[in-house]
Amino acid sequence: MEAAKVKDMEAQAHEEPLLNDKQDRQSSLQQAISQTFKSAAHLANLLPTGTVLVFQILSPIFTNQGQCDAVNRTMEGGLLALCGMSCLLLSFTDSFRDAKGNVRYGLATTKGLWVIDGTAGPPPEEAAAYKIKFIDFMHGFMSLFVFAAVALFDQNVVSCFYPIPSKQTEEVLRSLPVGIGVISSMLFVVFPTTRHGIGFPLSSK
User: Fold this and answer.
1) In angstroms, how far is the first alpha carbon of the chain from the final one?
2) Considering only CA atoms, which of 45, 73, 46 is closest in space to residue 161?
3) Count of other CB atoms within 10 angstroms of residue 86
């Protein structure tokens, strides 16, 4: 009896480190997944709301939850291209309130704001503030890069285009979106935009 008890105690002592290692690996994996979702959510706040919503709804469908064939890849590639162009173009939109307090949206031009619904634009004395500027191009391309980072954080997208990535590819896919996110976030802070375009929070004015 005593020999059996000793064997049981030795077996338990041998199993405990294995269980601890397994729990540590699961904990690290859970932390990595949690950090990925937090990073993607933070970056998504820098993009037009509608574009991000369309991507989040359609991407799992188009990628078949990451199990892609040629048709899925074509559809997902088209979705990524359209959403990327949307992020770029919507960076050149702005809004203002007309005399009745209604919000009007327009596209920034060299002369001012071209109102999308064809109504009168902002007053002439305010039109100059809506002219297209160099920083608009900067924000447009930064938004495009940020969307690329958000897409790379999406495991369905990664599994669709890189079902069996090499070790080097895994390292790039893991580090590239983080690098893009950090640099873009810093640039957005250093060079803030004053525009309140389509998909962005409205101005109180």
Assistant:
1) 84
2) 73
3) 22
Round to whole Å and give the CA distance between 197 and 203: 9
pTM summary value: 0.72
Q: What is the pLDDT along the chain (205 residues), one digit of tens a residue?
A: 554 544 454 545 454 444 444 444 445 444 544 444 454 555 666 677 888 889 989 999 999 988 899 999 999 999 999 999 999 998 898 888 877 777 888 888 888 888 887 777 777 777 778 888 898 898 889 889 888 888 888 889 999 998 888 888 888 888 888 888 788 878 887 888 778 888 776 665 5
Rounded Cα distance, 165 and 87, in Å: 28
Tokens of 200: 């962005």
Q: Tell me the two tokens of residue 155.
A: 């495991």
SS3 93: strand
Give the HSE-up count for residue 83: Cα atoms under 13 Å, Cβ half-sphere. Answer: 27
Closest CA to 91 of 51, 149, 124, 41: 51
From the CB of residue 85, how many other CB atoms can be counted at a distance below 10 Å? 13
Contacts of 140 by beta carbon, 8 Å cutoff, 6+ apart: 87, 88, 89, 91, 92
